[in-house]
Amino acid sequence: MMNHQYQTAAQVDRFDTILQEVPKPYEQCISYLLEKMPTMFPPVVFATNPIVLHLNQFSTDALKYLIYDYAHFTTQALHMFFEARVRSYWPKLVEEIDRNLAEELGSKSHGISHLELLRLGHRLDLGLNVDGVSASALTRGFVEEMHSLFRCNDNAYLAGILLAFEAVALDEFRVVSKILRRYAELTGRSWVTGSLTSLYVEGHVGPETGVQSDYEGEAGHYLGLRDAIKGEITVENISRFIQGFLALSLKMAIWWERLAVAARLVEIEGILTPEPVEIPEIVQRVHRAAMAQTSS
Ligand SMILES: [Fe+2]
Ligand SMILES: [Fe+2]
């Protein structure tokens, strides 16, 4: 896992080359960026995500750590979208963000917002109160960085950030689905179709099995956004668009890697923590003397 992290960070050296060699017509530019994703940012791709690769090595506590941290991130992601919305001026982009936010607020999920589905679902289906636990310092720091990334009124850069965010979302929810299912399995719970948690997951990625043809979710967000941006990207602003895309992808990839390591540390720290030592004789004597004095 650590090795992956180094490899992803090293991709920064390739950014200049990418900016030069990427084809500049919008559609080809996006295809090129998506094509590069698995080699440049393996953790954002489902099959090479470090948690998916090592899923069976995560204990119940480590999975709980991941679930709490992801809940914090995704809660904040809604606010990141609002940050982007207030800084958007391109009419179609504004429209697309509004459509996306309406979905977040429950337009396709019985009027229940996605975050309520997640929080209440985790409580009812998994016995986890993600509302009451704060995320790790690692994820809080990452969220801060993400907020600053989204607080940008250069719409080309912002469009790159948003498109990358949607481009990685489908795989992200597939990773989350794996984590939640594994946690349910290890704690003796069954995954119930139609439960709040399954609605939350399937609302984003579609059912794991079965017909998916009328399904939109994250894939729909990506396509909607791709088309909404299309008419605004020009030879003047395409480099900033690409920079935004790369910046977001890099941050997400490095977070996944660090998160995977941090969750494993939950157990490793448990193994490395020494047993509490016997209280040394001299300390016990001082204590006994003090006690004897108070009782006399
Ligand atoms: Fe959502
Ligand atoms: Fe989305």
Bound molecules: fe (ii) ion
Number of helices: 13
Instruction: Give the total of beta strands.
Output: 0
Which geometry do the CA atoms define?
A: elongated
Helical content stands at over 70%
* CATH architecture classification: Up-down Bundle
What portion of the residues fall into strands of 2 or more residues? under 5%
Gyration radius, rounded: 23 Å
Summary keywords:
single chain; Heme Oxygenase, Chain A; 13 helices; mainly alpha; about 300 residues
Describe this structure in words.
The chain has helices at residues 2-10, 15-21, 26-40, 50-53, 60-86, 91-104, 114-126, 137-150, 155-186, 196-205, 217-230, 238-272, 281-295. It has a single domain, classed as Heme oxygenase-like (Heme Oxygenase, Chain A). With 296 residues, it is mostly helical. The longest helix has 35 residues, at 238-272. One fe (ii) ion binds next to helix 9 and helix 11.
Secondary structure topology:
Blueprint (H helix, E strand, L loop, with lengths): L1 H9 L4 H7 L4 H15 L9 H4 L6 H27 L4 H14 L9 H13 L10 H14 L4 H32 L9 H10 L11 H14 L7 H35 L8 H15 L1
Helix pairs in contact: 1-12, 3-12, 5-6, 5-8, 5-9, 5-12, 6-11, 7-10, 8-12, 9-11, 9-12
Bound molecules: fe (ii) ion (FE2) (2 copies).
The site of one fe (ii) ion has 5 residues, from helix 9 and helix 11.
